[in-house]
Amino acid sequence: MQPHSFVVLLFELSLVLTAAKLGGLGARKLRLPVVLGELFAGVVLGNIGLLGTDLFEIIEHDPSIEVLAELGVILLMFEVGVESTVPELMRVGRSALLVALLGVAAPFLLGFFTVRTLFPGFSFWLDIFIGATLCATSVGISARVLKDIGKVKSVEGRTILGAAIVDDVLGLVILAVVVALIGTAADPSQVESPGMASEITVIILKAFGFLVVGIVLGLLFSKPLYRWAAKVELSGMLLTLSLTLCFTFSYLAHKFGLAPIVGAFSAGLILGPDHSKIFMQQEEQTLERLLVPLSTLFVPIFFLHMGMQVDLKALFSFEAITVGIVLSIAAVVGKMASAGGILPGKDGPDRWAVAIGMVPRGEVGLIFAGLGAQMEVGGEPLLSPALYAAVIMMVFITTAMTPPLLLKRLRKIKS
Amino acid sequence: MQPHSFVVLLFELSLVLTAAKLGGLGARKLRLPVVLGELFAGVVLGNIGLLGTDLFEIIEHDPSIEVLAELGVILLMFEVGVESTVPELMRVGRSALLVALLGVAAPFLLGFFTVRTLFPGFSFWLDIFIGATLCATSVGISARVLKDIGKVKSVEGRTILGAAIVDDVLGLVILAVVVALIGTAADPSQVESPGMASEITVIILKAFGFLVVGIVLGLLFSKPLYRWAAKVELSGMLLTLSLTLCFTFSYLAHKFGLAPIVGAFSAGLILGPDHSKIFMQQEEQTLERLLVPLSTLFVPIFFLHMGMQVDLKALFSFEAITVGIVLSIAAVVGKMASAGGILPGKDGPDRWAVAIGMVPRGEVGLIFAGLGAQMEVGGEPLLSPALYAAVIMMVFITTAMTPPLLLKRLRKIKS
User: Fold this and answer.
1) What is the dihedral of CA B168, B162, B227, A300, to 10 degrees?
2) Which residue of B has its CA nearest to A237?
3) Which of B10, B259, B291 sits opposite A251 (nearest CB)?
4) Best to test chain A binding among B247, B249, B363 (most A CBs inside 10 Å)
5) What is the pTM of this model?
6) What is the number of domains present in chain B?
7) A325 lies in which domain range?
8) ipTM
9) How would you class B413 by CB atoms within 10 Å of its CB: exposed for 0-12, middle for 13-18, buried for 19 or more?
10) What is the CATH classification number for the domain harbouring B253?
11) For A300-323, how does the pLDDT look when each residue is reduced to its tens digit (9 = 90+)?
């Protein structure tokens, strides 16, 4: 007797969970990472309309599924954060910073010049914009692979995660700059404001300020808070407190211009080994164990939903496919060259593992693409539907290639 | 960089989870059941607008919170089902059937005649309708109390749960009859169809048919399915399979005219002790343990959201309060008299515990009330806003009084 849409959601959830597990099983058979199977299951579900059935179209556009998917990636990054600690992350700080800085600059330049050379018909602003879509790493998929094989705490894992945080801040800056620049181009009267540099400084200070202040305050106050919460002996108190911390940090991260997943990861960072002891005493389980059922439900929904966003039909165009391939190559080469080139050889992390871990592009690329499709320069949309499809293709290729390569590399350095 | 509404949800979730735990702590201090504290926290959040702030109004109307709340009650009833088994439930079958039948008839008659006597201004159809709103027990709150103190498997717990299933089928029948009758009244040309009796038979057969066939098929096929799922060794496979079963049964229950929670409970019934062994081998935890983190997150959202539905402002009317009190008394006396009067004394369940457990009215009462506010008889809405508020008041009083009384009674019979 519940509202109709909720009942439909129950059906959708059954279908999504089944499809995710079938995809996972298929990937396992082919010795590929499970998450790749979930992604492909999503592509299949999202494009089954091409076979003439619209049975599953509802899932793609159901806001509830999207909400559960977003909760999935938040919980995933929180889990990964719980497995990490601040000192461990600080120890790889220099490498992570370098990887992030170069890993943002190189794909941008490579993308810009490649497109400029190969597609002379594109405008200058379009080239800038396409370069920008290649910058930001989407850490979700690498985080999942690291978690699935227990490598979050490895030096490679920590470098990837640390670089991803810096990367997110840089992504913010680039978004602000590009939007301002293209705003100037679209409306020449609005000359490039001389305050640009100070604006960028504010963005960076706000973002890093939030991270530093949030994590320091969290480290100071969380232990007494958890000891109190353990004492009241209300069932589920500690887990609820942890989830509240995760959701609050995710929300605040967004308020400070960062991605919510960066907030979720930071919240997890705060809850180090000391908290595990409190959990063991009270719940006879660590927080990590308690989070497993939640991520079992939510996380596959995220990757399946991500796969569903790929519109195969939009890729049925010569321009989309050519540009898509060029972008994918620039994206991969740009990230890999920067991470592979700069990391110290012997003592530091394995440079190839880090390089591969930084390859996937995701939400940020999609947000750029969406923005580009809306923006107009000289009365035309900056990004045509075919170019939009090309960006999506790049996102999917970089995302789908990462899990098998990363898994292979991490297994190799273990042995 | 996620969509705005999702980020707001993160804030709302932090708030809802905190409020639920504060409510729970408050209730604990007053030696009341935790769930009552969650309900009251919801009433406070839902009516804080009376203090002139609209900060929390978004939560009340956020469809995402509603979806998570609905998932909460589904998961709660699934958990309770997992703790129960079919043979245990069959053993109390006769008592449960009697409790349900009389427990539906008595409040209806009592409600009808009380309103007829005390408020002669009401129309005949209104009296019928008000009687009907008093029929159906809402099992969620009693199930939560039983679960919180580990009494699901007690003979009283089983009687309440068994009666609740029958009750749901009866609620369906009454809804169909009343809507048909009032349809006849609103449009006299549409004479009471001679097929009414056969229509009711179809409703009953469909609902019971689904339950019997679903549970029998489930019992037959679930063990081989779970053995297979354990063998593939994909992480989270068993839990995902269980949740899929839960969601599918909930969806199908709705398709067969039952409440989704009845489907969730049935799915849980199928997963008996044999499955626990498979879970222990594979995941080193029982299904019950794995469900705890999920219910820790979702279930309080349900009870808080339920509390938020109470609109205190609508109760600021003499008519609403008088009728509300009369309805509450009729609702309580009707259910308690029937359960208390018929159960065998010594060997059977404690008649008072069962009687109290059947008192709460919930969603079904609210659905009736919503329907009544929409239906028109002679151009006027059947249920005026004040009467609508009175029904809500009855729902809240019967819901809020149950946890402390049930807890007290169950503790008494234990000692």
Assistant:
1) 40
2) B21
3) B10
4) B247
5) 0.89
6) 1
7) 69-414
8) 0.87
9) middle
10) 1.20.1530.20
11) 999 999 888 888 888 888 989 999
